[in-house]
Structure formats: structure tokens, C-alpha cells
Amino acid sequence: MERRREILKKEKSDIRTLMKFVGIFCRENHNGERTPFSFKLFDIRKIEKKRVPLCPDCTRLLTYGLTMRLKCPHDPKPM
Hints:
It contains two helices and two strands; from the N terminus they run αββα.
């Protein structure tokens, strides 16, 4: 996926929501080592100031979710 120059307001809101959901899920269901989430396509700290520590499985899940959200051509998003 190519780098994006600007993340839309709706995309930022969706990214925050995904990060919160996965962060809560990880905290409640997974024990073990967690590292702060980072995303290669953009600086996640510009969208969410609070760091979200995730286990490796949840990091992969959130990376996939964010990638699919940013690739989705549908507007508005299908329900």
C-alpha cells in the first residue's frame, strides 16, 4: 500500500475506535509482554496521543484492521 499524505477526519475517528477496541480486548484477554503499537504507514501518535500496549497477536490484528480500513474504497462504509 502506498503512503498517504493526509488521513481524513472520519478515518482518524475509525482508527481511534479500532485502537481502543483492540487495546481493551488485549488487556482483558492476553497476558504477557506488550509493546506500544506503531504503524508503518503513518505516525500513530498524531492520531492517538495515548500509547496502546499490545501483545504480538493483537498488534497483527490491529495492523490488519487499520490496513483494511484505509484501503476500503466504499464511502459510506458498508454495514
